[in-house]
Write a structure and sequence with these properties.
By secondary structure, this protein is mostly helical. It has helices at residues 4-13, 22-45, 52-73, 86-109, 113-131, 137-160, 167-189, 198-204, 222-240, 246-270.
Amino acid sequence: MVGIEEFIQTYYLGPLCSYYTPIGSLTYGLLLAIAVWGVYKLLGKLKIEVNKYLFIGLIPFIIYGGWTRALRDHGLYTGQLFCSPPIYFFIFALALGSLLLAVVIERKFKIPYWKVLFGLGLIPLIYNLLLTKITNLPVFAFGLGLVLFWALVLWAFSLLKPKLLSKVNWGIMSAHMVDASATFTVLSFFKTYCEQHPLTGLLTGRYCSVPIVQLPDMPWMMFPIKLVVIGLVLYLLDKYTKPGEEKFRDFLKIVIFILGLALGVRDILTVSL
């Protein structure tokens, strides 16, 4: 019988900063769900609307998370706090603390909270900028080219079929194609890199741990995975959201956007620095 310490070491501490185990992924997914619900309730208590202003205020923190993770891969940040998944708890705490401070400043000085939040988020971004030097420009350009390609393809589809892909959902899908394009670029150009997450690692044939089944090397699988999974999630959110629940749906969409863009920024910068 596996003891508690051995269980934690095997499924959580051992893989830390290297890959996610299926059990670890389920655990972190549950923690994410709890955090999402808690933050949504907190926003209601603070009387903060879930709208474009909240989204704008959070953008620097989204970029900072992925950017910092990439810098940690190159030793410019040290310690386990800045690898996956601890960094996500750190960024969550940083963004939440900044939001609370921004609300206090808004109430005292009448400065819109989202402007304060955006400004606070720029501070760590400036620090990251001072640490960053793009050394692999061809790979960086290739990754950005793929992102632009998919953004244009999805935009054209949204124009032809606006009922199937709204402009908001286009933005979310495009964010996840940043992740797909970055992962495809990393796995295609650098055979030493692997995929940390169990499902995408299995389907691309590049899981960082020992997979249940070893499939052929297929980095291109990231594109259909993202298109099908994220497209289906957005479709179900729009179709089954009940009247009066639109704000929670919109908040979930912000969370989905964050998950795509932050991972994409990390991957493309990791191989470009």
